[in-house]
Amino acid sequence: MRKSWLRDYIIKRLLYSIVIAWGILTITFILVRVGPSSPADKYLANLAAKGHDPAQVIAAIEARYGLDKPILQQYGEYMLNLLQGNWGWSLSTSMPVMELIKRHWIYSFQLILLSSLFAAVLGILIGIYSAVRQYTKTDYAFTFLSFIGISIPNFWLGVMLILIFSVKLGIFKTYYDTTLPLFSLANLKALVLPVITLGTGMLAAYVRYTRSAMLENLRKPFVVTARAKGLPEHVVIGKHVFRNALLPLVTIIMFDLGSIVFGGAYLTEIVFGIPGLGQVSFNAIFANDYPVVVAITLIGTLVVLLVNLTTDIIYTYLDPRIRYD
Amino acid sequence: METGNIDAIVLRVNELRTYFFTRRGVIKAVDGVSFELRRGECLCLVGESGCGKTVTALSILRLFDSPPGRIVGGTVCYNSTDLTTCSPQQLRRIRGKEIALILQEAQSALNPVLTIGDQIIEQMRLHLPMDTNEARAKAVRLLREMGIPSAEDVLGYYPHQLSGGMKQRVLVAISLSCDPRVLIADEPTTAVDVTIKAQILDMFRELKEKRQMSIIFITHDLGVVAEIGDRAVIMYGGKDVETAPIPDIINFPKHPYTMGLLECLPDVAKEVERLNSIPGMPPDPSYLPSGCAFHPRCPRALDICPRQEPPLVQLSKEHKVRCHLYG
Amino acid sequence: MTETPKAIAKDRAPLSGGGLRLIGYYWRRLTRNRLAVFGLAFIIFLALVAIIGPFFTPDPTEVDFEAKNLPPVGFTITHSTYDIKTDQFITTRVSGNWKHPLGTDRKGRDMLAMIVSGARVSLQVGLLATGIAIIIGTIIGVMSAYLGDWVDNALMRFTDVMMTFPFFLLLVLIVFIFGPSLAFIVLAIGLTGWTGTARMVRSESLSLRTREFVMAAKALGAGDGWVVFRHLIPNVISLIIVIATLSIPGVILAEAALSFIGLGDPTVPSWGIILEEGQHSLTTAWWVAVEPGIMLFLTVLAFNFLGDGLRDAFDPKSSV
Fold first, then answer.
1. What is the pTM of this model?
2. Domains present along chain C, CATH in parentheses
3. Which of B23, B290, B296 lies at the smallest CB-CB distance from C1?
4. Is any Cβ of chain B less than 8 angstroms from the Cβ of C2?
5. Cβ(A321)–Cβ(B157) below 8 Å
6. Across the interface, do A151 and C304 touch by the CB < 8 Å criterion?
7. CB crowding A94-108: b at 16 or more within 10 Å, else e
8. Do A266 and C169 touch (CB under 8 A)?
9. Per-residue pLDDT tens digits for B137-167
10. CATH number for domain B5-98+180-322, candidates 1.10.287.1490, 1.10.10.10, 3.30.450.40, 3.40.50.300
11. Is B61–A228 a contact, with Cβ atoms under 8 angstroms apart?
12. For the segment A32-42, what is each residue's pLDDT rounded down to a tens digit?
């Protein structure tokens, strides 16, 4: 009975996600076409500086990009291309955008993964401790620190960390060394400062969310029942309270992912010179490499969509109350 | 413990004081409560909201919120251990195993994200030397005893899938799972409708008779007290103001508050224009009146009542009152 | 006859007596929070600096290579410059002076002037962009809640789509396409940052529609307009104020981040631009990276303190 409901729910959410994905692609298309500087203009400016005849170049570009066709046809081809994996050609790096993404996504991935783990594990632990020891000095200290943590501009934090630990103290290198093999300790060391940079803001946020979610549940009657059974305190907190706090926590963390993490990762990559997708986008901006910038925005968005879908499904597993039988 | 001796005292509360130290001042929730619970009896703690009966129950097992709350005086004696000062480990061995507590609202007393089975079994695994299968079997037996149909299935249910009455019974089942000697039930009939109320009262009667359980039954409903209680402790303003066996309380109430409570009970046979009520409101525990806490609402208040706290007067072997009228 | 003290009534809100008393009540609750007061004070200070500052500081874009890389007052730094004539490194000790109290950057521009200019930019962008986002969000939220059905559905799907875009990535894309002028940046931030507001306003409006006091008012004969004005709006306003205050830091950081990666308005010195330059002069002029960052940090902190304090002050359930 429950299983079939779950399957239906997943299918429903999947379909909905596809609708949202369509919306995302469409809006991106609109933005690109509506923009004053079309791909032709920007590339044109580059070429004109190299002495080519503008009129010819415009015609060639428009033919190349299909800009001379009616807009609906453009839209159709755009969608088709995207679905087939043809995300355009990167002018500045002379390779298909897809290829560019394939080469660089792993750097963003490792940064985001490590930072998220760091922030989540530490954040939840501190949050739980803070909630259980509410009103103590430690709690006040952590609360104050988390305010600081969410207020520090993360790109400035990165620069400051470089200033202190690389320039003044010389413990770390100032820029990420791309020659290091991914699964080496040296790579891990090189990622310490970036992970702290990206992770601090997330950490502070997770501490606050966890603490508030725990506090909401700590004084509930079922906690008294649990203690009245004679259960040791760590079971009461860990099993009874935390399982309930997890529900709103998961929702909030998921919400945060879209708005904060990718922006933060983008900036962190630029500060530390990590060749992830953020850095790629940054380079593309300055080379006026249109398709790349668009593609990376799309990728980020679609990943968020995927994460949202996954979290939705996970949530139905965690909260028995929303499974209607 | 002597068996068959109904005068054996199982739990003795003596001058218990639990205060809450908040930013706005001290709340004397329980301010000098004394009573004893005898084997096989049902002792009712009676009073309006705010009189301290729930805090008294929580204080017995030290389950109130501890940063603001603290036991500042008195003792709670069980099995020659003082529960107010014993170590947390000792306390945990007694909670659930010797003395069980059923909270006031069945709705929120169960953990919404754990199954019923999980919540019954975890306690048994903790206190009793059984493995999961034995615990499951016992849980099913208990649920059946409580009158819950398809007990096997219920083990896999979550609280939100049960009705209010069923949740109440599950709570009772949980509390009985380790065969405690004492059961403290906080207003188990308050939030339920009349038919369920009758079933629950039957259930408690059975517990008392079949299992020889000593029960502390907290309620504000004198009708319930009359039906199920052996003795009653009337509470007001954090103190026990009258203690007596049920027939005496009902027929020969001594404290003006008790008399007032009895007068409030509507008589089905009589037709009246207005229902009786005690004038005024129960006091806010953070701002108790001086002297006898009841004096502002007392129709028989004397001059001495606002000035001095009334003494405890032992009117007979079983009947005591805190009132200036008698001392 | 009862001796119940009046003390119990002291802290209850005087909900009758008009708006002014209500404002006074909330103000008292807010000012009990010391952090919030600090936040407010800093913001006022910053506003003053932004408004009056330009009259007292030199032109931030004025370059003066003679005075480049001066440290702030009280700091001394050693410069090693290669002198072609003598084929040697000449080490000079340079100290800060009061002419450039916060030092200068590598082109000799006065740091204080640039910081002041940055304050103007941040506050302008902060207030304007947040204003735009709040207005859009509120309109969409209220429309969604009141027009119901397919309007609600359509608007919420649209909001879902916009919410899925990572805020910063979308911002970068828009500014990249449309050009990095300050006006566009404000517009872009406003057009991308309304989704949270829309959701919250919609949910609050929906819940208010069915809340007991609205039903009670209607039962007493109040018409829809009256209900909206006297009951709904006051409750939504406090929510909007809190959302706005807590959104401003994100907006300021967004503008700073855009400037940092070079998508800011190049004609106006903003904290992000200064910081970017500072990152490249860490070894020679570390203050260029530290100063704008501290300002950003303190500004964001101040708004966060204030917003948190406002939220607690307006929340009837929190004991302030």
1. 0.84
2. 23-71+101-314 (1.10.3720.10)
3. B296
4. yes
5. no
6. yes
7. eebbbebbeebbebb
8. yes
9. 999 998 888 888 888 888 988 998 888 888 8
10. 3.40.50.300
11. yes
12. 777 765 555 55
